[in-house]
Amino acid sequence: IGVHGIWIEFVDDYNRRRTATYLPEVAEEQEEAVDSLLRKGGYNGRITDKIRSRVVLTRYQSAKYVITYEEYLEHI
């Protein structure tokens, strides 16, 4: 976290698949981030260890580049 973003996937109480992500610059302290992502993913119930156990968490890295539109067109 900080360098890494996190993406979660979970199944809610109504058996719906939900996902949410934080980019590296947004991710917080890990446990709080998971609870926050559950809310961001649309979970409105009480956050318990049971719902946390349904979370599949993926950590990823991203890079940020600043280029002109013309440079972008050269690379697509």
TrEMBL record:
Alphabetized InterPro entries for the sequence: AMMECR1, AMMECR1_dom_sf, AMMECR1_domain
Domain AMMECR1 spans what residues? Answer: 1-76
Tell me the PROSITE patterns matching this sequence.
Answer: AMMECR1
**A Pfam family the protein falls into:** AMMECR1
Specify the protein name. 15668_t:CDS:1
Species of origin reads Racocetra fulgida
What are the top taxonomic ranks of the organism? Eukaryota, Fungi, Fungi incertae sedis, Mucoromycota, Glomeromycotina
